[in-house]
Automatic annotation (TrEMBL), chain B:
It is a multi-pass membrane protein. Belongs to the binding-protein-dependent transport system permease family. LivHM subfamily. Pfam families: BPD_transp_2. One of its GO terms (cellular component) is plasma membrane. The chain crosses the membrane at residues 18-40, 259-286, 312-334, 346-364, 398-415, 443-464, 476-497, 509-531. The gene is urtB. Keywords: Amino-acid transport, Cell membrane, Membrane, Transmembrane, Transmembrane helix, Transport. This is Urea ABC transporter permease subunit UrtB.
TrEMBL record, chain C:
PANTHER family: HIGH-AFFINITY BRANCHED-CHAIN AMINO ACID TRANSPORT ATP-BINDING PROTEIN, HIGH-AFFINITY BRANCHED-CHAIN AMINO ACID TRANSPORT ATP-BINDING PROTEIN LIVF. Residues 2-231 form the ABC transporter domain. It holds the Pfam family ABC_tran. It comes from Alkalimarinus sediminis. This is Urea ABC transporter ATP-binding subunit UrtE. GO terms for biological process: L-amino acid transport. Belongs to the ABC transporter superfamily. One of its GO terms (molecular function) is branched-chain amino acid transmembrane transporter activity. SUPFAM superfamilies: P-loop containing nucleoside triphosphate hydrolases. It comes from the Bacteria. CDD domains: ABC_TM1139_LivF_branched.
UniProtKB/TrEMBL annotation, chain D:
It comes from Alkalimarinus sediminis. It is found in: Cell inner membrane. GO terms for cellular component: plasma membrane. This is Urea ABC transporter permease subunit UrtC. The chain crosses the membrane at residues 12-32, 52-71, 78-96, 127-151, 158-176, 206-227, 255-274, 294-318, 330-347. It comes from the Bacteria.
From TrEMBL, chain E:
One of its GO terms (molecular function) is ATP hydrolysis activity. NCBIfam families: urea_trans_UrtD. Residues 17-257 form the ABC transporter domain. Keywords: ATP-binding, Nucleotide-binding, Transport. Transmembrane segments: none annotated. This is Urea ABC transporter ATP-binding protein UrtD. The gene is urtD. It comes from the Bacteria. One of its GO terms (cellular component) is plasma membrane. Pfam families: ABC_tran, BCA_ABC_TP_C. InterPro entries: AAA+_ATPase, ABC_AA/LPS_Transport, ABC_transporter-like_ATP-bd, ABC_transptr_urea_ATP-bd_UrtD, BCA_ABC_TP_C, P-loop_NTPase. It comes from Alkalimarinus sediminis.
Length: 404, 548, 231, 361, 257
């Protein structure tokens, strides 16, 4: 087994998360295949090891351990939900391996062994709110989310942010629903009432996956159009749209770091190879796929740079590595293990694609610890020596809870 | 005639620049003067630009151009049908799909057709919210003079938020010309709103009197603004009173709305559960694959829409029997293949069907991919029946309530009025004896299980109109379904109906007070406590026989 | 009418019926007797097809009975009143009776009136759930139900169990009447000797899964009774 | 037949013996055989086995009430999860100021949601004995309240099953809420040590494995004692003819209640052993589907045979571990097929085959 | 063996069971209508009456299965049966054999008898109870009495109908109650078995009070001293067998010719 380098892929292929994660497994297989076609890494072929943690969180830890301990992989690309990441995190730390996590998340974490290639809240939520406020003149806010940690945290950050911008308490409505909520009648009706007070209103949605379809359908049926009350979502991407009748969604928004519709040479290439890899000309690409693309290329470059796949060496080597992203820029791995990315706001079109209506002028650096949460505004992360700490409190000058 | 009126309108000074567009559009139509070819060409250039800013400029230029084609271009753009050929730099619309690409028609030179080989060679011209607002507003303004009184009303209402002195003058003028009573009354409201802002105390009080019956949110906002900021006490008092009256009405309608929401949620629960009320309630099979049978019905709807993409409106009418057949046949297969070996061992049916549900889910993942599938909503099921500005009934929900009642009635008929119902019950109560009485138990079992499964499939058609069509669809409903059947009383169809409806209403009554999550928890706790009071559900099977 | 030859039956490992032979003459009433647990009910269940048999053959009106499924046997003309009544508890009296209709050859859709005439109590209780009836009422319902299929052969397993004396007499009369007037063949399991003597033409005594004595009811001697029916 | 009434009948002896041998063998192969040797059992595998053993204990708890008393609980996962949460809370408190925010008292998830103080129900969990008490008390008390209500009003059959399901479903929704103070959907994780021993140490892992085996054995013996006692026969009487049992003077509600409470406490212990070995507890453990699945384990193993429940739990979970690696794309077909074929062809479960073999022999 | 009678059982004036003015109706149908019944200590009482007269329902009321709409039922002077649950009534000393034999089908004959055996019924005592030799002998003896000694370990579900009847009687014997309610004990029994049952019941009387419901007149005649006739939920006649047999109303509604 010395002539190959093993790469672990830890995405659910069954259970509730299979709907999102299966695509990421395929993306990784494609990236690895392409890399091998280019000659592999360090002159060796890459060998993907796929396991199915079956949307079961403890199983992520178990399978993660299996990948590292038994399969001896050099890095793991995987997870979608935060809880799955939290579950494997102690394992990758203990066994000192690498995990590339490709999904937007609530932040408030920076592990020595995890690389967060999805968006931190400041790379998605805050720019989106800025856009609504400045470009669309939104004055009244509905923060609607699924009742779990990511929406709760994001909304907490947004609430603080909006208040810091002078938005009054009564102009913010917060609403949480259970996972897979499908009966949105009362909530949409409330939103409608909330939005009929004569001030421009928008919904900032952290509604998770499956609950979105019935939500948008209800919006449409109750006659709320995107011009009246636009919805900006953080969890609705091309993949999700491909399973939705997009008629009622047209004109609503999403904030991501990547859209399939971005016209860039590299993106077209990526789309081409994806569609031919998956043998389906209708398959779409999405943000987490780009995140894996970035993460994988960063890892490859870091390994080449370090001349070894030894995780402890790669950890250091990867900081500062810059690779092209798919939106025409360059993303860099930051010392806090997050990456720099542009933020794009897209409007949903009836073909299930997003039309970019706004984007940041340059890249935004991912912030592990939100400046808008009282508990974490003093915390920074820097994995370079001499600090080498994921959560350094600048006030107390302490680095807590590190196992190293 | 049309032009004349438009001109009349245009004479009224307005601060809205979209009215300028209207003036220009009107100008284009009325005069044959062509003086802005250059402007038009520039605008087309801009529309061909890649980024959004360029398109916006293009639209603005187009608005000023009086080229005859400008309006048409705007309409196509608004509909989202405008594309650009990337290489050739032409504006086109799609004529038809051809292989992997399209046949497209040139927008500017009608009749000219190109063939593109790949879907990615053409690109839709972007419009966004802001632009859409602009174009739509312009259309609304045009519709102030539309033939259709409904559209005129909507246009009037859309101006309520921005009534000022000028608008009052305009409204007054329109008021004189307007023939339709409803529209006249709306215009009068508009004038009143204006008076509320700028009129004398007497005018204001008169305006309040006029407005206190209106349920328009803008009216309410105007009154609220008066209460908040007017200096005259009598005006404030009158406005407060009017507001109270309006709020009272709104509250009443909110109650009706809650009831409607509850019943519609209830009918979804009933639909999901009713098949189970047969397979579980009557036959005693703890069918954990019930949710997957619903899912199959939803996927059938999807497939039917694939087969008849141009007839989405009719597709549902095909989907209902098709889903009944598909799920029903799968049900029969399950019964023949598995369940029939397990009669007399009801708990074992739970285990086997649990396994089957895993298999069916994975089968759907394999066949249709793990992604959700897009099922379209026909036009006749979209939108809402607006009863008044604060109370409307969404069509999809309305139809689903009706659908639910129809399905229920049919099932009730089959089980109560045909001998099948009798035989099923006989078989489930004493299989051996039923056989000794000449009942073909196997046939009855297969038929009944097929019926229950088929009904689950039909429920899937309804659910495809409300929620995701994906491999997890079934799991989302299985627990609720069992809850409903058991809460209603196993073996009682009425129980299922009443249970579903009351759980739906309870949920919707609680939701605004406690939030959706707590509402659900509270309903569950309610069920647990209720079962303590009535250990055999809402409509228990009574008598000596039921106790054992 | 019904001839059974060399019937063997097992409950799992235990051999219950041993090479059993039985002959039921057409138009006659045959009573089957024997102590508790000798296999009378088991035999009847086999005839009805409710228990699998190991080996043996049965001729019913010229057809091989065991070739037909249990549900077919009802429409071939066998009515069954099981031991323990086996009423459908959650169905009304009327529904209990209706079940038998579909097995009738004549496709009658209504319960024949004579059933209610034979058992007036059923008419009274027509809308009550079968399970709510008293034991005796259930027994009457069970007989009524068996008659609904319009049988040629009526099989009764201890039909007088739990029935009030005057109704027992009536049932006896009814069996006789059906037997003598309509020519209905009857196979009866009965413990009560007087009753058996009154209604039966032939007898058959079983002992440990075999039949050990048969004959005309007049031949049912005290010795036989002492040997096979006493404990 | 009479052997069924002996506490340590042949099968029980065999079972306990096998359990002891396997435990010792696994330990030996882990410690004594050097890594790289094909016979070596990695700590990863040991922990995996430990997890199976906790599932087996849970399965026994379910079998006790379902197999022997006829109560089909579709909510036993809730008791398991509650035990797990009690243990998780202890482990969280053990983190102390080593959390990312360095707060000596508050767990991380409370800090970043800006909670100022520890909720009352978190007090005491810094003490091991208290937490262990809660491991049995919390599920026990919930089971007591629930059972007291349900059994007193004679809720039976599917009605009982469905309200147990409603119970676990309600708990799942509640625990998903961040406001509940149990970490929302992320649950409790990133544990550091237990009683001062690092959870990452081999020795700690092995100890947890041995403890799981030990508690499985104790749980087995306790359940075996119950089912072989007269109480066990009362349970079976209740299962087969509840009314009749009342008429000979047994307080059916009380018998059900206490056995149910005992079973819940046992499930709680299983949960408490599970959490430190898998490293996370979150509301998904309350998922109604989990509870259904564990009933399936018992059925596959063989209802009303305690050792069967153990075999079922281990077999199904092993199959899952194996299939998810061997055939990640189609393992659900395999598992689903196993359930279907198992019910069809092994009506008495795996234990049924053994019984049949014995009967033949 | 001492009956496990409730210490409150007060039968000073010789009356064991009082049922007074009891009525019960089901969905409007009066199954029991102002019924009065008194049973003396040690008495053996036969109750007969047409099918549906309410005999079984009466037993349901006495044993707590059915709560009457009106009336009272006392066990001895003090024990109000209407306030007690089925197990409490059973523990107070009332045992019952059902019309349709119900035994614990999955358990052996021996276990069925052991379960029924008088003794503490609490959770802990049953958990720790052990059979002593004397108790075992008692069970063996009852098994002989009911003719099932060869079936000691047989699954009781595999017994024939008549055997189940016997087993149920055996369970009643094990319970050793002060008052026995026996619903149609000889249904499905041969004549000779009937005689044995008659013998058994008469021998029990004296020490126990026994209420027997039966339709078999030969059997009733062989054991009865006093007979009560129920009709449409109330007492139609009461007296010696001869009196009853010559009562024209009884003849009309019940005995026939
Ligand atoms: N389901 C069964 N499983 C095993 N053995 C059984 C089963 N049913 C009956 N038996 C046994 O088979 C034998 C015959 O039973 P059967 O019910 O046919 O007797 P029977 O002659 O009808 O008696 P009775 O007069 O008491 O009704 C009995 O010894 C009984 O124990
Ligand atoms: N739960 C019930 N619902 C409706 N009717 C009932 C119920 N229980 C009993 N009955 C009716 O009450 C009457 C008395 O029944 P009961 O069983 O007490 O009669 P019985 O005297 O025991 O008759 P048998 O001698 O036939 O056993 C019957 O007519 C019966 O149909
Ligand atoms: N990280 C998320 N989206 O759970
Ligand atoms: Mg019999
Ligand atoms: Mg009776």
């Amino acid at each position: 087994a010395d002539d190959t380098i093993k790469v672990g892929i830890l995405h659910s292929l069954s259970g509730t998360m299979a709907i999102s994660e299966t695509t990421l497994k395929d993306t990784m297989l494609m990236l690895i295949e392409e890399q091998n076609a280019k000659g592999g890494v360090l002159g060796k072929k890459l060998e993907p090891v796929v396991v199915d943690p079956a949307s079961n969180w403890p199983l992520f830890a178990e399978k993660g351990r299996e990948l590292i301990d038994k399969e001896d992989v050099s890095a793991i690309f995987g997870c979608w939900t935060s809880v799955s990441r939290k579950s494997v995190l102690p394992v990758v730390e203990e066994l000192n391996s690498l995990l590339f996590y490709p999904v937007q998340y609530e932040g408030e974490e920076s592990s020595k062994n995890v690389f967060y290639t999805g968006a931190a809240p400041n790379q998605q939520a805050i720019p989106a709110v800025d856009y609504l406020m400045n470009d669309l003149g939104v004055k009244r806010w509905v923060l609607a989310g699924t009742d779990y940690v990511y929406p709760r945290t994001t909304n907490k950050i947004l609430e603080a942010y909006l208040k810091s911008k002078g938005v009054k308490e009564e102009d913010i409505m917060i609403n949480y629903t259970p996972f897979g909520h499908s009966d949105w009648q009362s909530i949409v009706s409330d939103v409608k009432k909330f939005g009929s007070a004569g001030k421009k209103t928008a919904v900032v949605s952290t509604i998770n996956g499956d609950a979105n379809v019935p939500f948008y359908k209800e919006l449409g049926n109750q006659g709320i159009s995107s011009e009246q009350i636009p919805v900006v979502a953080f969890s609705v991407g091309e993949e999700e749209l491909s399973g939705i009748d997009t008629k009622p969604l047209v004109g609503h928004l999403a904030a991501w770091n990547y859209f399939m519709s971005v016209e860039e040479e590299s993106n077209e290439e990526f789309i081409d190879s994806w569609q031919s890899y998956i043998k389906n000309q209708d398959r779409v690409t999405n943000d987490p796929m780009e995140a894996h693309y970035i993460g994988f290329n960063m890892w490859v470059e870091a390994v080449e740079k370090a001349g070894t796949t030894d995780p402890s060496v790669v950890q250091d080597a990867i900081i500062g590595v810059a690779v092209p992203n798919l939106t025409g820029g360059i993303s860099t791995m930051l010392p806090n293990h997050h990456v720099t990315k542009p933020v794009l706001i897209g409007e949903i079109q009836d073909d299930g694609q997003f039309q970019v209506v706004w984007q940041t002028t340059g890249n935004v650096a991912g912030d592990a610890w939100s400046d808008f949460l009282p508990g974490s505004k003093d915390i920074i992360s820097d994995w370079r020596a001499p600090l080498s700490c994921g959560n350094y409190n600048v006030k107390t000058a302490k680095c807590s809870g590190q196992n190293f | 005639m049309f032009c004349l009126r438009t001109h009349d309108l245009a004479k009224c000074r307005s601060k809205f620049n979209f009215i300028n567009i209207v003036i220009l559009l009107a100008g284009i139509m009325c005069s044959s003067a062509v003086w802005s070819d250059v402007l038009f060409d520039q605008s087309i250039d801009k529309l061909l630009g890649k980024n959004f800013k360029s398109v916006t400029q293009g639209v603005e230029l187009l608005a000023q151009s009086d080229d005859e084609r400008a309006e048409q271009v705007l309409q196509i753009l608004l509909a989202g049908d405008l594309y650009r050929l990337k290489k050739e730099k032409r504006l086109v619309t799609i004529k038809e799909e051809k292989g992997k690409g399209y046949l497209v028609t040139d927008v500017l030179e009608s009749g000219k057709i190109y063939e593109v080989s790949s879907k990615r060679k053409i690109k839709r011209v972007a419009i966004n919210n802001k632009l859409r607002t602009k174009i739509k507003a312009a259309i609304a303004q045009i519709q102030l003079t539309d033939k259709d009184p409904g559209k005129r009303s909507a246009a009037v209402i859309s101006l309520f938020d921005v009534v000022d002195d000028n608008q009052i003058v305009l409204f007054e003028k329109m008021y004189e010309q307007e023939k339709n009573e409803k529209v006249r009354s709306l215009i009068a409201s508009g004038i009143a709103i204006g008076n509320l802002k700028t009129g004398s105390v007497v005018e204001k009080i008169a305006a309040i009197k006029k407005l206190e019956d209106s349920l328009e949110p803008s009216v309410r906002n105007a009154l609220q603004a008066t209460v908040d900021s007017d200096n005259d006490k009598s005006v404030v008092a009158a406005a407060t009173k009017a507001l109270g009256k309006i709020d009272q009405k709104i509250d009443n309608y909110a109650l009706m709305e809650t009831l409607f929401f509850g019943l519609s949620l209830g009918s979804v629960l009933v639909l999901a559960a009713i098949g189970l009320a047969i397979t579980f309630g009557v036959m005693g099979v703890i069918n954990m694959a019930h949710g997957e049978l619903i899912m199959l019905g939803a996927y059938t709807t999807y497939v039917i829409q694939l087969i008849m993409p141009n007839n989405i409106g009719a597709s549902l009418f095909v989907a209902v029997p098709a889903a009944f057949l598909v799920s029903g046949l799968v049900g029969v297969a399950i019964e023949r293949g598995v369940i029939r070996h397990l009669y007399g061992r009801p708990l074992e049916t739970l285990l086997a069907t649990f396994g089957l549900s895993l298999i069916l889910q994975q089968a759907v993942r394999t066949v249709f991919s793990p992604l959700n599938r897009s099922v379209e909503t026909p036009d006749w099921m979209s939108g809402a029946l607006e009863i008044n500005p604060v109370f409307s009934i969404t069509y999809n929900r309305l139809y689903i309530i009706i659908f639910c009642l129809i399905v229920f009635a049919m099932l009730f008929f089959v089980l109560k009025k045909t001998t099948l119902g009798l035989k099923v019950r006989a078989v489930s109560q004493n299989r051996a004896m039923a056989r000794a009485m000449g009942v073909r138990s196997e046939w009855v079992d297969a038929l009944t299980f097929g019926l229950g499964s088929g009904v689950a499939g039909v429920a899937g058609v309804a659910l495809s109109q409300l929620t995701n069509v994906g491999p997890n669809l079934g799991q989302a409903y299985i627990i609720d379904s069992f809850m409903v059947v058991v809460f209603g009383g196993v073996g009682n169809l009425w129980g299922t109906l009443v249970a579903g409806m009351s759980l739906g209403v309870a949920n919707k009554v609680l939701e605004p007070v406690s939030g959706a999550v707590l509402a659900k928890i509270l309903v569950l706790i309610f069920i647990i406590l209720f079962i303590q009071k009535k250990p055999r559900g809402l409509f228990p099977q009574k008598g000596r026989g039921a106790e054992g | 009418m019904l001839t059974i030859e060399n019937l063997n039956q097992f409950y799992g490992e235990s051999h219950t019926l041993w090479d059993l032979n039985l002959h039921v003459e057409e138009g006659k009433c045959t009573v089957l007797m024997g102590r508790n647990g000798v296999g009378k009910t088991t035999l009847l269940s086999c005839i009805m097809g409710l228990l699998p048999i190991k080996s043996g053959s049965a001729q019913f009106m010229g057809q091989s009975l065991f070739d037909h499924s249990a549900e077919k046997r009802a429409s071939m003309g066998i009515g069954y009143v099981p031991q323990g009544r086996q009423i459908f508890p959650a169905m009304t009296v009327e529904e209990n009776l209706q079940i038998g209709l579909s097995a009738r050859q004549d496709k009658l859709k209504k319960i024949p009136d004579y059933i209610y005439e034979l058992f007036p109590v059923l008419k009274e209780m027509i809308n009550r759930r079968g399970g709510d009836l008293s034991g005796g009422q259930q027994q009457q319902l069970a007989i009524g139900r068996a008659l609904v299929v319009d049988p040629k052969l009526l099989i009764l397993d201890e039909p007088t169990e739990g029935i009030q004396p005057n109704v027992v007499q009536e049932i006896g009369d009814i069996i006789c009447k059906l037997n003598r007037e309509t020519g209905l063949t009857v196979l009866l399991v009965e413990q009560k000797l007087p009753f058996a003597r009154k209604v039966a033409d032939n007898f058959c005594i079983m002992e440990r899964g075999k039949n050990v004595a048969t004959g005309d009811i007049s031949e049912l001697s005290e010795e036989l009774i002492k040997e096979y029916l006493t404990v | 037949m009479h052997s069924d009434k002996q506490l340590f009948d042949r099968k029980s002896q065999l079972f306990l013996l096998v359990l002891a041998i396997v435990t010792v063998a696994v330990l030996a192969l882990n410690i004594l055989v050097p890594e790289g040797n094909p016979l070596h059992i990695s700590t990863y595998t040991v922990t995996l086995l430990g997890k199976y053993l906790t599932f087996a204990l849970l399965a026994i708890a379910v079998d006790l009430i379902w197999g022997y008393m006829g109560i089909l609980s579709l909510g036993h996962g809730a008791f398991f999860a509650l035990g797990g949460y009690a243990m998780g809370m202890y482990l969280m408190r053990q983190i102390g100021d080593r959390g990312v925010y360095g707060d000596p008292i508050l767990p991380d998830f409370m800090v970043f949601l800006d909670w100022k103080e520890l909720p009352w129900f978190w007090h005491g969990f810094d003490m091991f004995w208290f937490a262990m008490l809660m491991v049995v008390l919390v599920p026990g008390i919930l089971a007591f309240i629930f059972g007291w209500l349900a059994f007193r009003s004679r809720v039976t059959g599917v009605y009982l099953s469905i309200i147990t399901q409603a119970m676990t479903y309600a708990l799942m929704l509640a625990f998903y809420r961040n406001e509940m103070g149990f970490g929302g959907n992320n649950g409790l994780t990133d544990f550091k040590d237990i009683l001062g021993f690092s959870l990452q140490e081999n020795s700690t892992r092995l100890t947890l494995f041995v403890l799981s085996a030990l508690f499985l054995a104790l749980g087995y013996i306790a359940c075996r004692y119950i089912v072989t006692s007269k109480l066990g026969r009362v349970c079976m009487a209740i299962r087969d003819a509840e009314d009749r049992t009342r008429f000979i003077g047994y307080r059916v509600d009380k018998v059900k209640l206490w056995v149910f409470v005992f079973s819940a406490a046992l499930a709680g212990i299983a949960g408490a052993l599970y959490v430190p070995q898998v490293g996370i507890i979150n509301p998904n453990e309350f998922s109604p589907l989990n509870s259904i699945e564990l009933v399936v384990w018992v059925a596959i193993g063989g209802r009303a045979t305690l050792y069967g429940a153990v075999i079922g739990a281990i077999a199904v979970n092993y199959a899952k571990s194996y299939f998810t690696v061997a055939m990640p794309e189609v393992w659900l077909f395999a598992l689903g097929g196993l359930f279907v074929l198992g019910t069809l062809y092994l009506p008495k479960g795996i234990a049924g085959i053994m019984k049949r073999k014995e009967a033949v022999a | 063996m001492v009956p496990q009678a409730d210490s409150r059982l007060d039968i000073k004036n010789g009356c064991m069971l009082y049922v007074e003015d009891v009525s019960v109706s089901f969905d409007g149908f009066k199954a029991i209508n102002n019924l009065n019944l008194y049973i003396d200590e040690g008495e053996l009482r036969c109750i007969i009456g047409p099918n549906g007269a309410g005999k079984t329902t009466m037993m349901d009321i006495i044993t707590g299965k059915t709560k009457p709409d009106t009336g009272s039922a006392y066990f001895g002077q003090k024990i109000n049966l209407l306030e007690m649950s089925e197990p409490e009534i059973a523990q107070a000393g009332i045992g019952r054999k059902f019309q349709k034999p119900t035994v614990f089908e999955e358990q052996s004959v021996f276990d069925n008898l052991e379960l029924a055996m008088a003794g503490p019924r609490g959770v802990l005592p049953t958990l720790f109870s052990k059979l002593n030799g004397e108790q075992r002998d008692h069970i063996e003896q009852v098994m002989v009495q009911i003719g099932l000694q060869d079936h000691s370990m047989a699954r009781s579900g595999a017994l024939s109908h008549g055997q189940k009847q016997w087993l149920e009687i055996g369970m009643l014997l094990m319970q050793n109650p002060k008052l026995l309610l026996v619903d149609e004990p000889v249904a499905g029994m041969t004549h000779q078995e009937m005689d044995r049952t008659a013998e058994l019941l008469t021998s029990l009387a004296g020490k126990h009070s026994v209420i027997v419901v039966e339709h078999d007149m030969d059997f009733v005649r062989s054991i009865a001293k006093k007979v009560t006739v129920l009709h449409q939920g109330s007492v139609l006649a009461e007296g010696s067998m001869d009196q009853i047999q010559s009562n024209p109303r009884v003849k009309e509604v019940y005995l026939g010719e």
